[in-house]
Amino acid sequence: MDLHKSPAPTDGQPVPPAELRCSDADRDRVADILRDALAEGRLTAEEHAERVDGVLSAKTVGELERFVRDLPAGHARRAASVSAPAPQRPTPGAIPADPDENVVAVFSSAVRKGRWRPGRRMHAYAIFGNVEIDLSEAIFEHQQVMIKAISVFGNVEIRVPENVSLRGTGGGVLGNFEVHPLDSDDRNAPVVYVDGLAVLGNVEAKPKRGKLVADILDRVSSKVDKAMRKHLDR
């Protein structure tokens, strides 16, 4: 990652769309187009590798679009990538009724953080205790993730990356239930739903500033492997 800061515009004029700084979601979208082009035979393995390297180092939207300008999907998906708000509730059938994992803290603390893979449904219980669920470095294998948080004289803190969508439905009884809604620029970005109740306790979910879904290299590598296997099996 390039940590050098680019000078900000100082003339007061709007920045052209092509000069906007690209996000990880933008790079992931273009990597998907290149992956499909490789599988369809539109690009050779060498061309694909060269363009993926360029995608990972691109800094602006205009730089990204150069890599798919000669591909039909680049034009079709560009029009379809207009951001749309995530739904307030999960898609029916997308979330199982039973949790994939329970995180329980009774007069204690429990933490889930770092490079981990959250399931589709997680239940968090803080009874006179503290639960911390940090998704800022998580590897999302599902597009929709539900977290049911119950706090009784306890505290549940949930942190998500800035480039996912966040939704919440719940309440408090002499307590605080607070979810800071968040909309991703990418309609295909993961959506985290927080539901639950705070009884004389606290449940809070919000983005962790400066943190983004950062498993693009893992995703690109996996997709390239699948595309190459599909190509060789023909």
UniProtKB/TrEMBL annotation:
DUF1707 domain: which residues?
A: 20-72
InterPro entries from the UniProt entry: DUF1707_SHOCT-like, LiaF-like_C
User: What residue stretches are annotated with the Cell wall-active antibiotics response LiaF-like C-terminal domain?
Assistant: 120-191
- Location of the region described as Disordered in the Swiss-Prot/TrEMBL record: 1-24, 78-97
- Which regions span the lipid bilayer? none
Descriptive protein name: DUF1707 domain-containing protein
